[in-house]
Amino acid sequence: MLYCLNTSTIKPQSLIDKITLAGEAGYDGIELWLNDVFEHVARGGEVSDIESSLSDQGLIVPSVIAMRQWGDFHGWEHQLVLDEARRRFALGARLGAPFIVATPPMESTETEHLPERYRELLEIGREEGIRPTFEYISFFKSVHSLSKAWDVVQQADDRDATLILDAFHNWNSESTLDELKVIPVDRISHYHLDDAHPGKPPKSQTDPDRVMIGEGQIDLATEVAALREMGYDHTVSLELFNAELWSADPLSVIKVGLERMKALFEG
User: Fold this and answer.
1) What is the pLDDT at residue 267?
2) Domain ranges (residues) in the chain
3) What is the mean pLDDT of residues 208-214?
4) Fold designation for 2-266
């Protein structure tokens, strides 16, 4: 396994500091949010600064986040989204990421058009040198379960179609291990590891409810064991959105996260 840090875990830090901290903590890689890259450039920085920092710390970029709204609009508005997709895909490819996360609509319940739209993204990805990977969000109104997400990937009927997994979304949507185990391991692009607030039931939690690995109510050991049995041995990221952890010492937070990820996969 290659252990990575999703930068949302230490969101208040600057992008360069996030990269430096991940290297200091001993991570293999870092999952970047493209809006952080845009902010770095808007403040007078260069993309080359980020490339140099990644190289200095010896970090891979397993994926970048995110491409949104590709399933929301029609006509000229959708064309604008595709133009933005090309811009984001090119930037992600420049940063060395093999994948960019593609998330479905938040509010719309329409999903019939998503396989075709996803194929459209995959074609742009081939042109730009990066693969959009489909992510479902358990508290969105469109694709909010593992089985529905896998249906979209299958219906896309494209050799490059993949699914990104997230322990929190699997638990929060009450998706099952049986649903997980039918997914071919070569169709899994990456895995987000996190835990769920101990005091709230599934289907009621959102991003800020994620807590540090081992401090919530998800049976992570069983899910990780299933993934290992399936042969998954690629990349995993610690991905949290917890305001309490954002106020703590960032290096301490991500060191604990790395130790607990390794304990799950190697214990």
Assistant:
1) 81
2) 2-266
3) 98
4) TIM Barrel (3.20.20)
Residue with tokens 């459209």: 120
Q: pLDDT of 59-96, one tens digit each?
A: 999 999 999 999 999 999 999 999 999 999 999 999 99
pLDDT digits (tens, 9 = 90+) for 146-186: 999 999 999 999 999 999 999 999 999 999 999 999 999 99
